[in-house]
Amino acid sequence: MENISSEEKKSSFLGALFHGTMFYVFMVVIVAGLILGFKFYMQEKNIEVVTSNTTNLKLGDMITFRFSTKMLERSVEESMSIQPSLRVRTAWSDSRILTLTLLEAPLPETTYEIIFDEAKTQFYVPQEKIKRKISSSVVPKLKNVYPSNEQKDVDINDQITIDFDQTIEDPFKIEVKVVPMTTNFNYKFNESNTQLVITPELKMEKKTEYLVTIQLRHNNLDFSRELYQGKFTTKPPPQVFYNYGGNNLQTKTEDRLEEVEPQIVEGDYIDIDLSSQTMFIFESGKEKGAFKVSSGKIGMDTPQGTFSVMAKAKRPWSKEYGLYMPWFIQFTNRGHGIHELPEWPSGYKEGTNHLGIPVSHGCVRLGIGPAKTVYDFAAVGMPIIIHK
Questions:
Q1: 248 pLDDT exceeds 60?
Q2: Which of 80, 89, 169, 238 sits in a 20 to 30 Å window from 329, CA-based?
Q3: SS in 3 state form for the chain?
Q4: What is the mean pLDDT of residues 218-231?
């Protein structure tokens, strides 16, 4: 039996230890490599995608996808689809950033889904399906319209104002139609483009129903939406009254189409138009009433000019004519005045059927009722303008 020396035993042990250690190191390297490879694979398999600019999109806008690792660009583009269909142009930056530019206008208030089905990283690691949602512009809505629908007694000088809940800008535009077109209208937005003001060039017609239609249109698509349809009615023509009937109700005799511009805009005054035989009372530039009168007949004409209320008397007696003159307002030193139809001692009213015709002796006669209204309105010192 061969004897093994201690040196040989020692050498054999060291060899075995070396090989064992190398095997262990090799296994550690293999395991570490597998772990690192698996970790790397999982990182490549579960990349992060950050998307920017995904709302209120319109033609020409860009959507950006930022991948957490470099991508195989061709595989990304080939796997991409958009539902509903939307044409885009693609561009890359450093294989990590994909930019889509909209080549067509998206439908308003529509949600699109961009899908990447099995896009691959630069190391050909396929991805699970990536989905991102984008949305187009929200359609502007109305907040308020003046005059409101069915509104009555709208002033013929009033503006039409339309308020929106957001700025009106590309790709949207507003079209407004006013019927009937009794005058041209000027259209102007405010600085923030949230309010449209429509101003008639001339006054609108009195006692007329106007239909207002507001349409929203898209600059790039065959898209329109009716935002509003309503109607309003302008004030009826001013009325001229002769007398008041029972229960102090005014008796309408005629509609007046013409507007009377006040000659005094500050303070109250009385305006007498001899040509139309009409008296107007104005309060701070606004007409408060119009009444038929009977002024002086030829040869006894009512004086023209600017006068003022000199004195007032509720029921004075005229010695010259033997009549009462109820609600008398004196405006000249010669005794001219404004008063109700003259009344005989018997109670008979003179000139009831002559209102609107110059038949007086120079005074300005008013019907029963209007005379007291004017008397109560007039104050000593108030201007009276008489003209043709």
A1: no
A2: 238
A3: CCCCCHHHHHHHHHHHHHHHHHHHHHHHHHHHHHHHHHHHHHHHHCCCEEEECCCCECCCCEEEEEECCCECHHHHHHHEEEECCCCEEEEEECCCEEEEEECCCCCCCCEEEEEECCCEECCCCECCCEEEEEEECCCCCEEEEECCCCEEEECCCCCEEEEECCCCCCCEEEEEEEECCCCCEEEEECCCCCEEEEEECCCCCCCCEEEEEEEEEECCCCCEEEEEEEEEEECCCCEEEEEECHHHCEEEEEECCCCCCCCCCCCEEEEEECCCCEEEEEECCEEEEEEEEECECCCCCCCCEEEECCEEECCCEECCCCEECCCEEECCCCCCEEEECCECCCCCECCHHHCCCCCECCCEEECCCHHHHHHHHCCCCCEEEEEC
A4: 95
